[in-house]
Amino acid sequence: xxxxxxxxxxxxxxxxxxxxxxxxxxxxxxxxxxxxxxxxxxxxxxxxxxxxxxxxxxxxxxxxxxxxxxxxxxxxxxxxxxxxxxxxxxxxxxxxxxxxxxxxxxxxxxxxxxxxxxxxxxxxxxxxxxxxxxxxxxxxxxxxxxxxxxxxxxxxxxxxxxxxxxxxxxxxxxxxxxxxxxxxxxxxxxxxxxxxxxxxxxxxxxxxxxxxxxxxxxxxxxxxxxxxxxxxxxxxxxxx
Amino acid sequence: xxxxxxxxxxxxxxxxxxxxxxxxxxxxxxxxxxxxxxxxxxxxxxxxxxxxxxxxxxxxxxxxxxxxxxxxxxxxxxxxxxxxxxxxxxxxxxxxxxxxxxxxxxxxxxxxxxxxxxxxxxxxxxxxxxxxxxxxxxxxxxxxxxxxxxxxxxxxxxxxxxxxxxxxxxxxxxxxxxxxxxxxxxxxxxxxxxxxxxxxxxxxxxxxxxxxxxxxxxxxxxxxxxxxxxxxxxxxxxxxxxxxxxxxxxxxxxxxxxxxxxxxxxxxxxxxxxxxxxxxxxxxxxxxxxxxxxxxxxxxxxxxxxxxxxxxxxxxxxxxxxxxxxxxxxxxxxxxxxxxxxxxxxxxxxxxxxxxxxxxxxxxxxxxxxxxxxxxxxxxxxxxxxxxxxxxxxxxxxxxxxxxxxxxxxxxxxxxxxxxxxxxxxxxxxxxxxxxxxxxxxxxxxxxxxxxxxxxxxxxxxxxxxxxxxxxxxxxxxxxxxxxxxxxxxxxxxxxxxxxxxxxxxxxxxxxxxxx
Lengths: 240, 516
Ligand code: SF4
Ligand code: SF4
Known about the structure:
The complex is a heterodimer of chains A (about 240) and B (about 525).
Chain A lengths: L2 H28 L15 H26 L2 H6 L4 H32 L1 H5 L3 H26 L6 H13 L5 H5 L3 H16 L23 E2 L6 H10 L1
Helix pairs in contact in A: 1-9, 2-4, 4-6, 6-9
Chain B lengths: L2 E10 L8 H10 L12 E5 L11 H4 L3 E4 L2 E4 L4 H6 L10 H4 L3 E3 L2 H5 L11 E3 L21 H4 L11 H4 L8 E5 L8 H5 L5 E4 L5 E3 L9 H5 L5 E4 L4 E4 L4 H4 L6 H4 L6 E9 L3 H5 L7 H8 L6 H9 L4 H9 L1 H8 L4 E2 L10 E4 L5 H4 L9 H8 L6 H8 L4 H23 L6 H5 L4 H13 L2 H4 L13 H4 L9 H6 L11 H4 L5 H4 L6
Parallel strand pairs in B: 1-14
Antiparallel strand pairs in B: 1-12, 2-7, 3-4, 5-6, 8-9, 10-11, 13-14
Bound molecules: iron/sulfur cluster (2 copies).
One iron/sulfur cluster binds next to α8 of chain B.
């Protein structure tokens, strides 16, 4: 294992995750005003409709797919009697469909952003950086999945990338696992960690604002000058 | 009983001259920042017409407000689950083009153009794209009925009316409708916001957007049936009328009211029972909504209510303000102010005295020999059709409108007889359900309309508030650095409040002989 391998599969992931975590904490405490989904539907919605819907639902599915494939150990699947064939069938067909949705949706969103003047003129550098980085990660990942299917699945990421990722997260890193993975998967993982590092400084933060609280909130919200959550607001001010 | 105080406004449409001063002063105060150019938190529409944004009243399509479904009050645009499922694409969002695409002009060209055969012109430039544009729609496009023979047909208030006739030139009618956020008792905008960024202030009912908590989910804009939540396309956050709360807290009227040329606006508080709101908003028949809302208001003169209000922490000066409130007088005591589109079920708190149409005209020359049998039937032939007003202010119940117009007419004939010392047939007042005192009071409030009677605004008890520094930004726009410099940053230390505090506008009211 070379020093380069150590950097890519040990040092860099930790740098990236550190930026990811601290960056979110910092931004949340200093930039509530900038913390939004930055919706542009108000300026243009015809082209947004299909693109946004496909992309978002696709990516949510892809996210859970990654959790199942990477974070959940293979042994657990075995324990529940889910065979490799069953897993692969799901991963390829459902994962593949979600992947297509993400790629097509993302592509439509990209086209919309560059070709519609209203949107293009009002896009910031960070919007483009986020979109392009995400696009690269997705395209490489998607190519891997397709390639993986085509080659009959000779590389099982569940026994290589899965344990590596769990190692990173549990502070028992095993960079050698990744060092031997195929280049396509290496690229996917590396670009993903680049994405994590820029994440807190882009619009992608809105992922953490999915307002699930709304589901069991009363409809009309009142705030009171005496009691409303001052401590939280105060902390935010002190941070400045 | 949960007693809450709530600010309300009444606008006397008979007196609105459609000058747009209110829109301009509001805009100068609040929406002179990038991304807000297209917003008019206060706008004045000519009716009939489709308004701003186009067809905002068409809530069959726009899906604003509440409706009763399966016996329950529900958001028209869909409940909590449907909102979260549609969060990536809001099916019912009104686009900026329905308001209008904001533009400026290429003024440079007027100065820098080389010598040519023709005068140089300043071409319009879109503020969204920075490119030249053709203007096909804009604010007040329909001002004073411009193009109404086209657009007016899509005015939802024209339903059940013989449109053909009403858009003939000789038959046509018009009125102005100034609109701000209604600061509803049952706000569907607040209820539609998944982030909880919108809230109603417990102390005074003002509805605000917390700029720090808004996450750009844009359901509030769909939720508001009056389309009074706007989207700042630069900051990607919702913004709306603040009822000028920094002024209100100091006992001053909103800027639109302060500068209103026709002096049509009234501001005051009402006490209401918050426990009754849901029930009132859920009554089966739309036509009962007006009365149901009236029923939520509490009588500030009732000692029991006063005692309970005090117990629940409402300060004495607020109870007193509720007694003198012009809103309470016009809406509850005199019953001449009506809510705008009660059928949206948000229980709006900006109410309107419907306009009377050219009154002398309708009566021919016989103004002085008025008998009830002459004037009351004339009301049905007023230029502004009663059914039109009913669709706007009474969920289609024309009796409600007829009742109000009768009162306005009766008050006028009574005061005319008093001032000209003519005999008066008292049955006119009786038939309109009034007494001489009520007629006098109506006259004082609507015709004399002294400043201190129009605005009864108790100051907020800020001494009780928590750490005010910590609340900075949760309701206002203090983050707008750019704004500070644009609002006279170069002009030394001029105090912007000086003008108001000098009582400049108040002088007129000091001496009643100078008043109208
Ligand atoms: S009128 Fe104002 S308070 Fe009422 S729903 Fe609309 S924005 Fe909310
Ligand atoms: S300033 Fe007053 S009179 Fe003029 S348009 Fe506004 S509401 Fe009407």
